[in-house]
Amino acid sequence: MAGRITILDETVINRIAAGEVVERPASVVKELVENSIDAEATSIQVDIENGGKKLIRVRDNGTGMSRDDAFLALERHATSKLRTEKDLMGIATMGFRGEALASIASVSQLRLLTCDGNEPAGTEIIIEGGALRKSDGLGLARGTVIEVRNLFFNVPVRRKFLKSPQVEAGHVQEFLTRFALAFPAIGFTYREDGRVRMDTPPVKGTFERIHTLYAKEVRDNLIAAEHSSGTARLHGLVARPPYARSNMRSVLTFVNGRCVRDRVINSAVTKAFANLMERGRFPFAILFLEVPPEEVDVNVHPQKAEVRFINPQQIYDLIVDGIYEALTGAPFNVLKPHREPLLPGAVAATVDHHLREGRRPDEPFVRPKNSSPLPAAAPAQKRGSEPPKTSARDTPEAPGRFASLGVLGALPNSFVVLYSDEELIVMDHHAAHERVLFERLRRTEHEREPSESQDLLIPIVLEFTALETRLLSAHLETLRRVGFSVEEFGDTALVVRGVPGWFGCTDLEDFFRSLVEVMLDTGTKGDPSRLKDELFKKMACNAAVKEASSMRPEEIKHLLRDLDGVGSIDVCPHGRPITARFSLAEIRRKMGRK
Ligand SMILES: Nc1ncnc2c1ncn2[C@@H]1O[C@H](COP(=O)(O)OP(=O)(O)OP(=O)(O)O)[C@@H](O)[C@H]1O
Ligand SMILES: [Mg+2]
Fold first, then answer.
1. Which residues surround ligand 2, an ion (CB under 5 A)?
2. Structural domain boundaries of the chain?
3. pLDDT for position 505
4. Per-residue pLDDT tens for 472-496?
């Protein structure tokens, strides 16, 4: 019986490869622009017609190709970028497989014009569905032009799956935006049906590029991130919360210039922005990772859109630390934060005292033992995969970002009003206090001793269902660290013998019930530190001073200093802004003044 297995011919092989490499016009543009970048072009012009379905043209002023190379370039597995297997371990170019041009040529009508500036004439090659139609010599400037017409003309199923010209053009523009960000030294021009959509001259860096690519609103919120760890370096721009977007696509990440999506990077970004974003909101970030080519495998995805890191933990830590440092660094916190005394002493009219003054009838039970009002600031702490907390610095210098603001007072039953030389600032004191409490609660995790607990005169027994009790019991250590003296009491109850100083006047039973709810909502899947953060958020929210309680000026001042002490972050742990700012210029305009 004749064998049933045969080796496929070249055309079929190319067509199959094309199925993986070329998905839509945007993937063609991506491959062609990558080739231009590898050819050291300083100017790249992209034209598309009818969303790229009719025509895609990429013109560059790069090295060009000799006549022989131009023919080879269209063959499968023909590349100038890789010679041996060893080279695969250290790829520094965008391309490396020698597959793109052959794949594109097999599913389109492709015209290649190129000249390397050494040969007397340039070369023109026309290929249709992989078959050579014509080749010629002609006078050309150095560089390469590739025209791809009627993509998928010979694969009707694929052609049918293409979306409307607008959608396809949108994808093209998205890819080009990424290239423009990653390669600021290259000038890009992009036209759709003759209309210029992007025209970015060469500039020095990404930030200048952003000026031509993004709206002012985005630019105004960006802060620079820059961080190194071992052999890897992170640089880029992140938007300061509360600026946020509605999906994770607003996070662009590049590894050695290549735009990739990566699980490690995404979870690090999410981690770094945790507790700074409202639920369902996502950060805006443009991040560049520079990693030695031998420490990252780029050969793991047909469209080169994913990578594998040799040391993912290093990359994770680098990103978390880098972003956190940027967020709690200069622009959040123009001046150095200073350390709050552990015991504020007699002068301190703290928010916490304020809270205690407002105590409800359960107050008499509390016998203050040692009035450490809040879990104390953590000592400078080692960085691990946890986000680094802003370490309080020793020498109190000039007042911090918040403490330098003047206090006007408080609106009746509502917000606090502050001012600076240029702004009128309304502050949500509940959100502010929430942030302070939250940061201090998190710091208890890294302290040697649990926070001080204040004994209740009569221990309180709280009853729960068996499941609730089990959930709470699993977190007794966390509760003790933040200053609760609490134990199991049979299968369906807990006994509370002491509460932390920051606890304020919250109803104990309500408080524990709300923690159970968080435990049920958050679940135990994934990152265990997330549940802890959610618990701390809930505790902070319960204990924070309420909007309706009007604060005295000294209390406001104290709160401002506390905010600086925890990093001057301008959003509450749920991601809501702490301040609303009205510039004097804006107010003058409203007043009809120039
Ligand atoms: N615009 C260009 N300018 C100069 N040379 C080019 C250009 N485009 C392609 N080439 C040459 O043609 C070769 C084949 O290109 P092709 O895109 O098919 O493969 P590759 O870039 O090597 O790898 P990959 O398949 O990963 O993209 C390249 O290695 C390069 O030498
Ligand atoms: Mg290529």
1. 35, 95, 100
2. 10-207, 214-327, 351-582
3. 66
4. 998 999 999 999 999 999 999 999 9
Distance, in Å, from the CA atom of 403 to the CA atom of 433, rounded to the nearest integer, reads 14
d(CA 230, CA 225): 17
Instruction: Write the CATH number of the domain with boundaries 10-207.
Output: 3.30.565.10
From ligand 1's centre to the CA of 96, what distance in Å? 8
Q: Which residues pair with 143 in a beta bridge?
A: 115
Helix, strand or coil, per DSSP, at residue 418: strand
Of 61, 67, 76, 79, which is best to mutate to test ligand 1, by the most ligand atoms within 8 angstroms of its C-beta? 79
How many angstroms separate the alpha carbon of residue 101 from the centre of ligand 1?
Answer: 7
- At 112-155, the pLDDT tens digits run 999 999 988 899 999 999 899 989 998 889 999 999 999 999 99
Nearest by Cα to 34 from 86, 79, 111, 95 = 95
Count of CB atoms situated within 10 Å of the CB of 65: 23
Q: Give kind and range of the element (H or E) at residue 268.
A: helix 263-273
Relative to the alpha carbon of 83, which ligand is closest? 1
CATH class of 351-582: alpha beta
Ligand approaching nearest to the C-alpha of 304: 1
Ligand 1, pocket-test mutation among 32, 38, 147, most atoms within 8 A of CB:
38
Confidence band, pLDDT 50/70/90 cuts, at residue 220: confident
- Tell me which of 14, 27, 30, 35 to substitute to probe ligand 1's pocket, judged by most ligand atoms within 8 Å of the beta carbon: 35
* pLDDT, position 183: 97
The arrangement of strands across the sheet holding 493-500 comes to: 453-463, 493-500, 485-488
Helix (H) or strand (E) holding 441: helix 429-444
| Pocket flag, ligand 1, residue 168 (CB < 6 Å) | no
Please report the pLDDT score of residue 398 as a whole number: 63
Confidence band (pLDDT; 50, 70, 90) for 524? low
**CA-angle at 444, arms to 440 and 447, nearest 5°:** 130
Nearest ligand to the CA atom of 298: 1
Q: Ligand 2: distance of its center to the CA of 93 in Å?
A: 9
For residue 242, cis peptide bond before it (omega within 30 degrees of 0): yes
Are 265 and 229 a contacting pair, CB within 8 Å?
no
Inter-residue contact 42 to 61 (CB < 8 Å): yes
* Domain 214-327 is found in CATH 3.40.50.10490: no
pTM for the model stands at 0.76
What one-letter code names the amino acid at 221?
N
The confidence score (pLDDT) of residue 529 equals: 80
- What pLDDT, on a 0 to 100 scale, did the predictor assign at position 8? 86
Regarding predicted confidence, which is higher, 231 or 382? Answer: 231
**Ligand 1 contacts CB of residue 302 (under 6 A):** no
The mean pLDDT of the chain is: 85
**Does the pLDDT of residue 308 top 90, yes or no?**
yes
Query: Between the CA of residue 275 and those of 7, 242, 434, 534, what are the distances in Å?
Result: 57, 11, 11, 8
